[in-house]
Structure formats: structure tokens, C-alpha cells
Amino acid sequence: MKSIKTENKRASYSADCFLSGALITDSKNTIIYVNSYFEEHLYWKSDELVGQNINKILTKSSRIFFQSYLIPTLLHEKTSEEMQLIIFNGQGIKIPMTINAQINEEGKVFWSLYNSSKQDQLYDELIKTREKLEEQAEELKSLASTDELTNLLNRREMNYRSTLLLEQSLRSKQSVALLVIDIDNFKLINDTFGHLEGDRVLKELGQALKSFGRQTDLISRYGGEEFLIMLPDTDKKGALLFCNRLHAIIADILVDNKPVTVSIGMTISNTINTFIDLFTQADNAVYQAKSLGKNRTQLFGDDNTI
Ligand SMILES: Nc1nc2c(ncn2[C@@H]2O[C@H](COP(=O)(O)OP(=O)(O)OP(=O)(O)O)[C@@H](O)[C@H]2O)c(=O)[nH]1
């Protein structure tokens, strides 16, 4: 049995004691009750709202949502929880609110409204944090796959991408060209002009290769002064043309007013080559180019150099 004391205590509480909005509308969507939250926190006086259609406090998009979703849901389910609506406060400012509502048999709807601005801020912050983390992950990925000095692909990334590209090319029966490019007498540049000058040459060569190559070419710094390039969908003729032009643009890089030169070992894939096969062939070819006097391109398996 409830004591009289408890009953009295209950009676002294009302919807005005809660830190959330309470609102009742009738079956014609006319507001018939608002609690004091509306005056204290949303700057609406009770008599400005009671007798008015609920549309008075809803933004345009919220009205559409109210008519097309909320009311049908209430009629069908009798309750509707955690809906997001934007309402105007008495000063005309838009406030995001989370709504719980239930409908009774007479069609009266009992609304409880919670200000969700802080929740929205939290979502915003979560989204920003997630975007930041994604950016950082991208940066890390790029750092892990790029050579710091030249910004070209590093050896590990080149091995990975070349293997993929070669597999695709074998499937589509296209040939690829693999070039090993080795700067001539680079030790002499370092020893005579210092490591910083050597680094400048590496950087400039990296830039030249990048701006010269196509978007689909794989261009890497493979080791100290050795660069590896894979050209998709390229035959012997196209690759030789590429190498000739490469010698010309690299000659624009000067050390002590003299053009830098490179030796290039080149090979063209056939239908059964692996990446290791191709690399070994191009590496042998560059060795041959060096021994034949440097500053030239040597095609693997060919006696002539260019
Ligand atoms: N400045 C600089 N030098 C590097 C870097 N990595 C490797 N090297 C230098 O590159 C030089 C390569 O020398 P070698 O392998 O003898 O080749 P080379 O002098 O070009 O001789 P050839 O290949 O026969 O023309 C060495 O002196 C290395 O120290 C780097 O990141 N920066």
C-alpha cells in the first residue's frame, strides 16, 4: 500500500521539474501544452505556442520529416524514439533536438524533447578526428612507399607494384619494358663535390624522371644511385625511344658545368617472365653498358648499344 506521504510527494512534482521539453499536440497537430523548459531554455512563452500548429516551431525540412515520416510512424507503431528534428527557439535560432513521442487513442501526441546540440558537436568532432586519422594513415602509407630524397617509389613499393603490373600485362598479353638506370661515376661526384652535391643530382634526376614519365609508368629509386622504371604496354621500339629521350633530358643536369650521364640496362618481357627474371636481365644489361664505356643504353640479349 502506498502511504499518503508518498502520494503527496508525487503530486508536488510536474513536467516542469525535468531538464527536457514536454509538449502535447492534439489530433490536428495543435499544441495544447508545453512545460516550463520551453520558456526557460527555448525562450518561448507558453501562450505564444499553445493553440498554434506545431509547424510554428519546426524548420522546413523538419516539417517534411514530421509529415512524411514521424506522424505515419506514430500512427503505425504508436511510439517513435530518438528522432532528430530541428526546431526554432523563441529567438529564431535553429536547435537540433532528439525527440521521443507517443500517441494515445484520441490522437494526442506526447513529446519529450532533448537538446542534442552537444551531441551534434560530438559527432562533428568525431568526424573531424576520423578524417584527421585517415589523412595521417594516408601520409604514413605514402611515407612507407616513397623514397625520402627523391619522392619516387622506394624499392619495396616498386617490387610490389611491378609484380602486380607484370601479372596484369601477362594476362592481357601486353609487353612491359624494365629499365635499370645507373648514374655514371657518381662516386666521383660525391668524392669531388661532396655528398650534398650528390644528393642534389639524385633529387634532380628523380624530378626529371617523374616529369618525363607517364602517369602509369612505375618510377623508383631502387638503390643508392640506381633507378628502376617499368613501362607498361611498351615494346622494344617504344622503350628505345624512351631511353634516347631520357639520355637527352638527363644531360640537362649539370655538375661543374658538365652534363650528368647515365647507363641504362633495358629488357622487354615475354609471356613467361617473372619480375626477378626481368630485373636480372636489365641489371646484366646495365653492367654491360658500363663495361662498354657508360653513357648508353644496352638492350638485354642484344649485342648493340645505343
Ligand atoms: N650523395 C649520395 N650518394 C649516395 C647515396 N646513395 C649511394 N651513394 C653513393 O653512390 C656511389 C656509388 O658508387 P659506385 O657504385 O662506385 O658507382 P659509380 O661511381 O657511379 O660508378 P659507375 O657505376 O661505374 O659509373 C657511392 O659513392 C655511394 O656512397 C645517396 O643517397 N646520396
TrEMBL record:
Catalytic activity as recorded in UniProt: 2 GTP = 3',3'-c-di-GMP + 2 diphosphate
Lineage: superkingdom: Bacteria
Gene3D superfamilies associated with the record: 3.30.70.270, PAS domain
Keyword vocabulary terms for this entry: Coiled coil, Nucleotidyltransferase, Transferase
PROSITE patterns hit by this protein: GGDEF
The keyword Transferase appears for this protein: yes
E.C. number: 2.7.7.65
InterPro entries the record matches: Diguanylate_Cyclase, GGDEF_dom, Nucleotide_cyclase, PAS, PAS-like_dom_sf, PAS_fold, Rev_trsase/Diguanyl_cyclase
SUPFAM superfamilies: Nucleotide cyclase (SSF55073), PYP-like sensor domain (PAS domain) (SSF55785)
Domain GGDEF: 174-302
GO molecular function: diguanylate cyclase activity
Family matches, as PANTHER family: DIGUANYLATE CYCLASE DGCM-RELATED, REGULATORY COMPONENTS OF SENSORY TRANSDUCTION SYSTEM
Protein name: diguanylate cyclase
Organism from which the protein derives: Pseudoalteromonas marina
